[in-house]
Amino acid sequence: MADSSFDVVSKVDKMEADNALNQAHKEVEQRYDFKNVGASIEWSGEKVLMKANSEERVKAILEVFESKLIKRGISLRSLDAGEPFASGKEFRIEASMKNGIEQDAAKKINKLIRDEAPKSVKSQIQGDELRVSSKSRDDLQATMALLKGADLDVALQFINFR
């Protein structure tokens, strides 16, 4: 019998992120507390740029964006938001969406699987994703549950379960 396997990835659906940004933009345009403070949120290349005339207002825009991401099913672990910084008379926050599992995180996941998953489970790093395989599908599902319960600093999705 052939080994069963699945891939562990960390990807953000660009369309869902775009929808969340558009919803946040609409809310920022309509809310009374954002009137006359130069509040805006938009794509700036691959990054999300948030602007307002005070540090508190720009942090509030970030909170609105985070709430929209959660409603669209995107984990906040995939949002990498910087600290507010002054730029002229306004404050800005640049945030980017993380795609792919970095090498350090992949090694950490690999070690977790080796140490705590059932013994028949094998994992290997393939670029920015991990392939996990085993003869037993039950062991693979137990490994998925283990990874979901682990406190890792990346958003994980499981694809290609065969």
What features would you describe in this structure?
The chain is an alpha+beta fold and 162 residues long. It has helices spanning 14-30, 55-71, 103-116, 137-149, and strands at residues 4-9, 40-44, 47-52, 79-81, 85-87, 90-97, 122-126, 129-134, 157-159. The strands form 2 sheets. Strands 2, 3, 4, 5 and 6 form a 5-stranded antiparallel β-sheet that branches. Strands 7-8-1-9 form a 4-stranded antiparallel β-sheet, with helices on one face. A hairpin with a 2-residue loop joins strand 7 and strand 8. Helix 1 crosses helix 2 (55-71).
Q: What labels describe this entry?
A:
single chain; 162 residues; five-stranded antiparallel beta sheet
Tally of contiguous helical segments: 4
- Described by the principal axes of the CA atoms, the overall outline is elongated
Order of helices and strands: EHEEHEEEHEEHE
Uncertain spans: none
As a percent range, the share of strand residues is: 25-35%
Helicity, in percent?
Answer: 25-40%
Number of DSSP strand runs: 9
> Biggest sheet: strands, sense, closure?
5 strands, antiparallel
Rounded to the nearest angstrom, the distance between the terminal CA atoms is: 12 Å
Rounded mean pLDDT score: 90
Structural class: alpha+beta
Radius of gyration, in Å, reads 20 Å
